[in-house]
Amino acid sequence: MTPTLNRTLIALTLVALAAPVTANEREDEDGRHAAPPSADQAAPRPEDPDGPPAATDAPDDDTTEQAAPGDTGADPAAGEATGDTATEVPATPDPVAPLELLGKTVPVGTFDTLYWTPDQSFRSIATPVPVLVAHGTRPGPHLCLTAAVHGDELNGIEMVRRLMYELEPDELAGTVVGVPIVNLDGFRNGSRYLSDRRDLNRYFPGRKNGSAASRVAYSLFENIVRHCDYLVDLHTGSQKRVNQPQLRADLENPQVVAFAKHFGGMTVLHSPSSSGMLRAAAVDEGIVAVTMEAGGPNRLEDDAVDYGVQALETLLENLDMRKASRFWGAPQPVFYESEWIRAGQGGILLSEVELNEQVKKGQILGTVTDPISNTGSAIIAPYDGRVLGMAVNQVVHAGFAAYRIGEEKSAEEVEAKAEQAQEQNDSQSGGNQDEPTPAGEPDRPDGDTE
Ligand SMILES: [Zn+2]
């Protein structure tokens, strides 16, 4: 940096004798600067999760020295705190660099379709996965949206399409990267899984030389996810279950809590992420991530899609990336702790409640009846709460997770708990990270996980 600066100063001094500084002068500098291109440098975000935001480094050798560090306010962790420092140097003219992603350069203020090829297949038949990019003209965070990590979860695909095509890059601060169909094989087959029957969302961040699924995960993570400051992974319920639109977030992480509050009134469910899930791997790398769940698999639900898009629009507004066309001003998210209520016996499940219904302790949620012996039993709500997810009517076995009942928590309660967990983590850091599983099994039915 310093030699460049010196060179610039010398050049400026010399030129100043004869003529005003021209744009060419700077372009020459920049051009030489850019000659050994480093992807990191060109990308306006920190490649190194521990490093400072790199957004301002690359393009603006011509700005004054003091302006360089951190003048974008694009610190992913800062959330709503950005923009409050009125004494900052006024925004520099155009500190945004073209975006280097997936081997292509996306100019500032443009929209582009890139292609990601998870190269676990052989090259001649591999099908590149389209990646939509809106690269804004003003500095801001990199927000990534991934959908159909499970190939049969369609609502998220439509959400990404609607949101991406309403973005206007010249009005945008920061960058939005949308991968509408991560698992293209599964999508083609109407299947949740990869072609080797593995669940991709158990393999993140993946390994370069791992199993097929692990390689796909690795490729997505390295080529796309690592370039994000924020990630929203879009899912639906699975295996004949439907979910009230909701965010799943690790509410023991204060950054994630702050991020989850940006989605307007969308319900937020505390869900400690398990190993291998995309959002868990992202958070581990300092990328603030949540999962959005809306509706069920193998169908397109307009209401769920619309709700999700509205929440994402609100997110963009709250991240100061763009003025929203509609904005949930007032509603605050409602936080929940939740538990799955399971069938005590096998048989035919018929529900007596609806999704999103408020239920009372002792209320019958549904009945399970053995169709041969005609013996049945009721599934009872063990506490007051709201039905955030439920199975559709079907044949079930004993132990089948039928109703996800959420218990409301105040935002203050959630934040206090997150801080506490953070402090605990900090004091334990360096210790054994493989904590024993808490008493009881993880509250997660087969196939319901994100
Ligand atoms: Zn899913």
Automatic annotation (TrEMBL):
For this protein, the record's InterPro entries field holds:
AstE_AspA_cat, N-alpha-Ac-DABA_deacetylase
Q: Does the keyword Zinc apply?
A: yes
Provide ranges: composition bias, Low complexity.
Answer: 65-88
> Looking at the record, which segments are called Disordered?
23-98, 408-450
Keywords noted in UniProt: Hydrolase, Metal-binding, Signal, Zinc
Residues forming the Succinylglutamate desuccinylase/Aspartoacylase catalytic domain are 139-317
The UniProt regions of compositional bias labelled Polar residues, in chain numbering, are 425-435
Where do Basic and acidic residues bias regions lie?
A: 408-420, 441-450
Q: According to its UniProt record, which cofactors does this protein need?
A: Zn(2+)
UniProt signal peptide: 1-23
Among the GO molecular function terms of this UniProt record, one is: metal ion binding
Check the record and name the Pfam families matching this protein: AstE_AspA_cat
The organism sits in which domain of life? Bacteria
Name the UniProt record assigns to this protein: Succinylglutamate desuccinylase/aspartoacylase family protein
Q: Which organism is it from?
A: Alloalcanivorax marinus
